[in-house]
Amino acid sequence: MRDLINLAGKNIVVMGVANERSIAWGVAKSLFDVGANVIFTYRKERSLGKIQKVLEKQEREAAVIQCDVNDDASIKQAFTEIGEKFGVIHGVVHSIAFAHAEDLHNNFLQTSRDGFAFAQDTSAYSLIATAREAKPFMTEGGSIITMSYLGAERVLDGYNVMGVAKASLEASVRYLANDIGKDAIRVNAISAGAIRTLAAKGVPAFNEILHQIEAKAPLKRNVTQQEVGDMSVALLGDTGRGVTGEVIYVDSGYHIMA
Questions:
Q1: What are the angstrom distances between the C-alpha of 180 and each of 26, 29, 143, 159, 184?
Q2: Residue 218's pLDDT band (boundaries 50, 70, 90)?
Q3: 3-state secondary structure of 258
Q4: Three-class SS of residue 153?
Q5: Residues 6+ apart with CB under 8 A from 148
Q6: Backbone phi, psi, residue 79, to 5°
Q7: Cβ-based neighbours of 113, under 8 Å, separated by 6 or more
Q8: CA-based diameter of the chain, in Å?
Q9: 16 to 157, 173, 252: CA distances (angstroms)
Q10: Which residue in 15, 156, 28, 117 sits closest to 75, CA to CA?
């Protein structure tokens, strides 16, 4: 299977690990399992400490590079540093999203202008900026994936401004796929089911969503961090070489139900 995926020794940048429960960490674990060289980014010193703690606990070694996705200069510096250290980037995992708490807890009608802009900038525009700075170092082609959620296309209580940001993210995937496909770079999104991450705690109705999925999804269960990680590896590797501009659902089939 490792030969089919063909990621052994490939340089994959993983953005968005907050702790062991992060979807990004699940992707990283699956990448480690197939022999990829994983490079992590972090925003602030506190995040650096958390990544280092997870790596130490899991007995893994990896480069960790500072990158603030709300700052174009920081993104450019991060990918320049990665390019200088590793030469070629073969893949990028963008697992970053954030909105202010009040814009999740209040009615959507009450979303502030600044809150709307911040959610879009952090959760959607950051993918565009990341792809732009990674592209010069993806000289052998490769794959960029991001993480979305069903709230991009359906109204989910408590998801509010983040749902709109995810809709923007999914549209960005399609436009980016068209822009850089000629450079043999694929861009896709994974719409993951509900997983108990740090970000999920900010969604007021999260526990109710978990129960709904268990009751309604064809598989009658929620998905795991590993299942999202394994699908990510498939899209990053040669198994996904003919797929771009897509949103792939890893949610036990919940999205197909009325």
A1: 27, 28, 10, 31, 7
A2: very high
A3: coil
A4: coil
A5: 166, 169, 170, 189, 190, 191, 192, 247
A6: -75, -30
A7: none
A8: 51
A9: 24, 18, 23
A10: 15
Write down the pLDDT at residue 158.
86
> Could you tell me if 246 and 189 are in contact, meaning their C-beta atoms sit under 8 angstroms apart?
yes
- Which residues, at least 6 apart from 131, have a Cβ–Cβ distance to it below 8 Å? 92, 144, 176, 180, 185, 187
Cα–Cα distance, 58 to 64 (Å, whole number):
15
Do 191 and 251 touch, CB atoms closer than 8 A?
Answer: yes
Amino acid in position 103: D
Report CA-CA distances (Å) from 71 to 76, 78, 84, 121, 205.
9, 11, 20, 10, 31
CA–CA dist 156, 101 (Å, integer): 16
Q: Which helix (H) or strand (E) holds 248?
A: strand 247-250
Active site residues: 149, 159
Model confidence pLDDT, tens digit, residues 123-150? 999 999 999 999 999 999 999 999 999 9
Strand-pair partners of 13: 39, 92
Mapped onto helix, strand or coil, the DSSP state of residue 189 is strand
Which tokens go with 232? 């990510």
Return the number of other C-beta atoms located less than 10 Å from residue 78's C-beta.
24
Who contacts 118 (Cβ-Cβ below 8 Å, separation ≥6)?
98, 99, 100
**Angstrom distance (rounded) from CA 25 to CA 246:** 22
**Helix (H) or strand (E) segment spanning residue 146:** strand 142-148
Quick one: tokens of 67?
């990158």
